[in-house]
Amino acid sequence: MVLYNDTQTIAAISTAVTESGIGIVRISGEQAIEIADRIYRGKNGKKLADQKTHTIHYGYIADGEDMIDEVLVLIMKGPHSYTGENTVEIDCHGGVFVVRKILETVIKHGARPAEPGEFTKRAFLNGRIDLSQAEAVIDIIQSKNEYALKSSVGQLKGNVKQKIVDIREKILYHTAFIETALDDPEHISVDGYGETLRGVIEPLIKEIQKLIDSSDDGRIIKEGIKTVIVGKPNAGKSSLLNALLGEDRAIVTDIAGTTRDILQENISLQGISLNIMDTAGIRDTADIIEEIGVQKAISHAKEADLIIYVIDSSAPLDQNDYDILKLLKDKKSIILLNKSDLEMQVKKKEIMDAYLGENKEENKFDIPMIEISAKENIGIDILENTLKDMFYHGDISFNSEVYITNVRHKTALQNALQSLNNVIQSIDMQMPEDFYSIDLMDAYETLGSITGETIGEDLVNEIFSKFCMGK
Ligand code: GDP
User: Fold this and answer.
1) Ligand 1 pocket check: which of 245, 320, 342, 375 to mutate, most ligand atoms within 8 Å of Cβ?
2) Check whether domain 140-220+402-453 has CATH 1.20.120.430, yes or no
3) Is the pLDDT of residue 399 over 70?
4) Dihedral of the alpha carbons of 214, 218, 221, 223, in degrees to the nearest 10
5) pLDDT at position 209, please?
6) Considering only CA atoms, which residue is closest to atom 18 of ligand 1?
7) Which of 228, 229, 234, 342 gets mutated to test ligand 1 (max ligand atoms within 8 A of its CB)?
8) Which amino acid positions bind K(+), per UniProt (predicted)?
9) 280 is in an annotated binding site
10) How far apart are the CA of 137 and the centre of ligand 1, in A?
11) Cα–Cα distance, 339 to 327 (Å, whole number)
12) What are the pLDDT digits (tens) for 118-129?
């Protein structure tokens, strides 16, 4: 694949455009150092072009006679730079105006403004990183917790890329063998080759399936556990949210039904993120607004990874609780017996019996139940540990495991899996060998889209357009 890579030198502000300690203007391209020399006045009078790569220089930026700022300039000569091209970074004072002024000056002297993500796109087009690594760069920037960051860094180091390269290599070897054999039947026999191929493809199918399965964990690592807190009004949902957040964000009142709208909060607990949607209390009600909230709660509960059901254990269960318990079927959930600081009116066995209903034998109850007091901050640590066990089965290891965190990668893996399953089917049905190679090639191509070897310019542009400016 040859993608168009224009050779113009580009420049952008790479730090946030807001008042800060320093700002960085980055220049990349063949002429980066030359352009920088047009506006750089070195304290020692030397030109940047005469300096060694990977060195830092102190001086001023000026437009002709007009001094703009005192700066440090970092030069990196290609190919040993982020983009693979000559790169200059100008560290200036971090005022919005001064950083912009320097960028304008750089542009006036020969660079063009970079598009969002264009530096990383060049790193990809220059072959320094593959597409999965480029995508890891966005993920690192957007990481919201420690696990997300670790998995993105793993991907940047090339762990996804390496898996894909290995799988593709095997596929290619066998496709090539079949093709060669079909071209030269006198010398190479494909008799019984189907079974040999099965021995290769079946483990690959397992490997790809494992990667696809990792994507659930991957999404949770990256985006957090989609969590809905349900429970009757006054059960203590808002108080729980506050206890988790450690600040008074949700409104807590004694009047039933105050949490009408849905608040969304991202909470990081021991390295895992919970995206909590705090919903209106669930109950039969004539109040229209409340009703909307209840509907939202139900629909959110359906798409949640986790339902936290808060029960006011100081009051007896009623029909509303039985209705809510139904929501928990087929979902990962936790039941919290809140207000444990008061006299408990609800027994765990009662909840279990209500949940199991008539079919006590057929159904099983495996929902963790924890006694807490949101108000007194009791049991919150047990909740945190339970969550960790439920979603991560202990600690996540990033040493050998590869987590698929990108939807695009997941889709490609699913398509490749389908093609490889087709190969097995053709072997089962003893189809002619060229059938194998068609599906093998499909899988090969599809997997190549993950690393970026087999995708078109449009898609590449779309991926990089999601980047921020200056990256
Ligand atoms: P929500 O309607 O489910 O969001 O319930 P709130 O969080 O607004 O709580 C309703 C009332 O119960 C408030 O007066 C809280 O202070 C009180 N409350 C919440 N949690 C506890 C608890 O653990 N113990 C006690 N004693 N009161 C609580």
Assistant:
1) 375
2) yes
3) no
4) -150
5) 94
6) 236
7) 234
8) 234, 253, 255, 258
9) yes
10) 43
11) 22
12) 999 999 999 999
Around Cβ 297, how many Cβ atoms within 10 Å?
26
Average pLDDT, the chain: 85
For the chain, give every domain's residue range.
Answer: 10-130, 140-220+402-453, 222-392
User: Which protein residue has the closest C-alpha to ligand 1 atom 2?
Assistant: 234
Token pair, residue 23, equals 């700002």
Give the pLDDT of residue 2: 45
| 452 labelled ligand-binding | no
Q: What per-residue confidence (pLDDT) applies to 400?
A: 53
Confidence of residue 280 (pLDDT cuts 50, 70, 90): low
pLDDT at 253 over 50: no
Q: Which helix (H) or strand (E) holds 267?
A: strand 263-269
CB neighbours (10 Å) of residue 61? 23
| CA of 338, closest atom in ligand 1 | 23
Mean pLDDT of 236-242: 85
pLDDT beyond 60 at 381: yes
CATH superfamily of this structure's domain 222-392: P-loop containing nucleotide triphosphate hydrolases (3.40.50.300)
Position 50, amino acid = D
- Find out whether 160 and 132 touch, Cβ atoms under 8 Å: yes
Looking at residue 254, its pLDDT comes to: 46
Write out the CATH class of domain 10-130: alpha beta
ipTM score for this prediction: 0.98
Each residue's pLDDT tens digit, 48-79 = 999 999 999 999 999 999 999 999 999 999 99
Beta-carbon-side half-sphere exposure of residue 43 (alpha carbons within 13 Å) = 9
Find the 235 Cα to ligand 1 centroid distance in Å: 6
- Give the rounded percent of residues in the chain with a pLDDT score beyond 90: 51
| Residue nearest (by alpha carbon) to ligand 1 atom 16 | 375
* CA 380 – ligand 1 centroid, Å: 15
- The arrangement of strands across the sheet holding 306-312 comes to 263-269, 272-278, 225-230, 306-312, 333-338, 369-371
Measured in Å, residue 372 CA sits from the centre of ligand 1 at 12
Rounded to an integer, what is the distance from CA 51 to the centroid of its chain?
A: 40
Tokens of 191: 């008799």
The sheet carrying 66-76 orders its strands as 40-42, 55-63, 66-76, 87-94, 20-28, 10-13, 112-113
Residue 237 labeled ligand binder: yes
Distance, in Å, from the CA atom of 446 to the CA atom of 108, rounded to the nearest integer, reads 43
> What average pLDDT does this structure show over 187-213?
92
